[in-house]
Amino acid sequence: MRRLVDRLSDTPVAVFDAAWTHLDHNDLWTALTGSDWPVRGEGRADGYGGDAANLVRRTFFGDTAPVRHPSPERHRAALVADLRDTAARYPADRELAAMVDELRRSSTEFARLWTEGRVARHETAVKTFDHARVGPLEVDCDVLSASGSDVRVVVYTAAPGSEAAGKLRLLSVLGAACAADGAGDRSGAV
Q1: ∠ CA 186-112-190, rounded to 5°
Q2: What was the pLDDT predicted at 47?
Q3: Long-range contacts of residues 63-67, Cβ cutoff 8 Å, at least 24 apart
Q4: Which domain holds residue 160?
């Protein structure tokens, strides 16, 4: 996975586990989303990088990142349905069960969506990042699965020749400066 992430240097790419815990990313991901997105293994003795390393926790515990989903409600419902699918595949995973219990207790919206019982995989979507340096940037968000594992590769792309594609090229040049000064949206949102 590390080689794949490194080779796709002109595309924002991140890797997540089955429960949406952030594992790795490339420099363009940082330039687009910001530098405060921890990876699993950073920040806590248990190796999980704190609550901020998990996309579902960030989504339901008030991450106010300037990433716009065409339908935020649909996005949150898709994350819950996907997490329910993961929980069904790993019923003995105590950490996953504890996270679901915490989310059910702490978020009425998560609890309502969980109770609905929907099971599905997270789908491709269009998202808009409100980036401080390059302005609004509309990208396709594709979630790819690595064969034989539950690793998810999240890839943001723009239509060739589009304004967004030009902005991504500019971010690939600005990369380190955007992350260093916090010019990205710092969401890490998927």
Answers
A1: 25
A2: 36
A3: 63/187, 63/189, 65/33, 65/185, 65/186, 65/187, 65/188, 65/189, 66/129, 66/130, 66/185, 66/187, 67/33, 67/127, 67/128, 67/129, 67/130, 67/185, 67/187, 67/189
A4: 2-181
pLDDT at 81: 95
Q: Is residue 105 part of a domain?
A: yes
**Closest alpha carbon to 129 in 61, 60, 190, 38:** 190
* pLDDT score, position 64: 56
Q: Is residue 156 part of a domain?
A: yes
Asked whether residue 52 is assigned to any structural domain, the reply reads yes
Q: How many domains does the chain have?
A: 1
Spell out, as residue ranges, where the chain has pLDDT lower than 70. 35-51, 63-66, 176-190
The CATH number of the domain holding residue 177 is 3.30.450.180
Tokens of 15: 């890797």
**pLDDT for 35:** 60
- Please check whether residue 110 lies inside any domain of the structure: yes
